[in-house]
Write a structure and sequence with these properties.
Layout: H1 4-38, H2 40-55, H3 59-100, H4 104-117, H5 127-141
Helix pairs in contact: 1-2, 2-3
Length: 143
C-alpha cells in the first residue's frame, strides 16, 4: 500500500505526457500542412536549406538547385490550375447528387452549410475562409 500512491502518480504523469505529446504533435503537423498550403515557397526554401546543409553544396550548386526547385514549383502550380476545372466538375456533381437525396428542409440547411463552409467547392472562400484570412493577416501585421 505504501508503494501504490507513488506508482499511481508516476503512471498518471506518464499518461499525461503521452496525451500532451499526441496533442502537440497533432497541432504541429496541422500547422505545418497549413503553412505549406498557404506559402509553398517556404517549403521550397526549407528543402533548399536542408539539402544545402546535408549535401554541403557549393554556391554554384546552390544556384542550380534553386533554379530547379523554382521551376518545379511553377510546374506544380500549373498542374494544379489545369486540374482545377476537373475538380470543380466532380464537386458540382457531388453537390447535385447530395441535394437529390435530401428533403426540401434538408436541402435548405445543406445550402446554408455550403455557403458557410464551402463544402464541395474547391478554393471556396466562404465566411469561415474569410475569418481565417483575417487571422492570418493579423499575425503577419504583428511584429
Amino acid at each position: 500500500m505504501k508503494y501504490l500512491k507513488p506508482i499511481i502518480l508516476i503512471l498518471l504523469v506518464f499518461i499525461a505526457g503521452i496525451c500532451v505529446g499526441v496533442v502537440g504533435t497533432r497541432y504541429e503537423v496541422r500547422r505545418s500542412i497549413r503553412q505549406a498550403v498557404r506559402q509553398p515557397e517556404l517549403v521550397r526554401l526549407r528543402i533548399e536549406r536542408d539539402l544545402t546543409r546535408k549535401l554541403d553544396l557549393d554556391p554554384a550548386q546552390q544556384a542550380k538547385l534553386d533554379e530547379i526547385l523554382v521551376n518545379t514549383q511553377q510546374q506544380v502550380a500549373t498542374a494544379r490550375q489545369e486540374r482545377q476545372p476537373r475538380y470543380r466538375a466532380i464537386f458540382a456533381e457531388t453537390q447535385r447528387r447530395v441535394s437529390e437525396i435530401l428533403t426540401p428542409e434538408q436541402r435548405e440547411k445543406f445550402e446554408k452549410i455550403q455557403a458557410e463552409y464551402g463544402l464541395f467547392t474547391p478554393g471556396a472562400q466562404g465566411p469561415l475562409f474569410q475569418r481565417l484570412q483575417k487571422l492570418k493577416n493579423r499575425r503577419e501585421e504583428t511584429p
